[in-house]
Design brief:
The chain is of the alpha+beta class. The protein has 6 helices and 10 strands, in the order βαββββαβββααββαα. It has one domain: Electron Transport, Fmn-binding Protein, Chain A (Pnp Oxidase, Chain A, Roll). Helices cover 31% and strands 32% of the residues. The strands form 2 sheets. Strands 1-10-7-6-2-3 form a 6-stranded antiparallel β-sheet. A 4-stranded antiparallel β-sheet has the order 4-5-9-8. Helix 5 packs antiparallel against helix 6.
Length: 211
């Protein structure tokens, strides 16, 4: 990933926060047929390994758990807030018009070697944690134990776990840091005026990057 220093995010806790808030990662692997991409919700265990460990599960019929090269790194990409930035949002637009469109975004790349975990106890614990996390905000959270045990056992047999101990963790926060303060302020204001959820999330990110 092309990463100018002014867009680099090195705070590991910030990277974890984005990964938790946007857990659907794009898992890129290399197999005999070439590059392969799967879209999988992950959980992150920050205490396991130098940069944490990603855990997920895939359908047993998905060949990624068998075919991904064990000798090469896999890549999980987590995409956070993003927004198109129009030149009209720049305060300096009136000073000669030397502004062009761009796109702001926040992204995390996690690299590590993938290993399969074909263990029902591991899978049950993993699925319980995942469902507890996703259900936490609901008034009456669903739990794995709400479903009949024999039904869960059949489902466990149909999936395989994967783990990726993270060897490298890279964040790119492209948030108008290369613009003068006046433009950063006007970009934030323009995004807030747009009012949609994506623009508001990016407005907050631009404001935080400017502090």
């Amino acid at each position: 990933m092309y990463l100018p220093k002014h867009f680099e995010e090195t705070d590991t806790e910030q990277l974890y926060r984005l990964m938790r808030a946007h857990p659907l990662g794009t898992l890129v692997t290399l197999d005999a047929g070439g590059l392969n991409a799967n879209h999988i919700p992950f959980e992150i265990d920050p205490g396991a390994g130098r940069f944490g460990t990603l855990r997920a599960h895939v359908a047993r019929n998905n060949p990624v758990w068998r075919d991904a090269s064990a000798d090469l790194e896999s890549l999980a990409v987590f995409q956070g807030p993003q927004a198109y930035i129009s030149p009209s949002l720049y305060a300096t637009k009136q000073e000669g018009g030397k502004v062009v469109p761009t796109y702001n975004f926040m992204v995390v790349h996690a690299y590590g070697r993938l290993r399969a975990v074909d263990d029902p106890a591991w899978l049950r614990a993993h699925l319980a944690r995942m469902s507890d996390s996703f259900e936490a905000a609901r008034p009456e959270p669903w739990k794995l134990s709400d479903a009949p045990d024999d039904f869960i056992e059949k489902l466990l047999a149909a999936v395989v776990g994967i783990e990726i101990p993270i060897d490298r963790l890279i964040g790119k926060w492209k948030l108008s840091q290369n613009q003068p303060l006046a433009n950063r302020v006007s970009v934030e204001q323009g995004l807030r005026a747009a009012g949609d959820a994506g623009s508001l999330a990016m407005a907050d990110a631009v404001a935080n990057a400017s502090r």
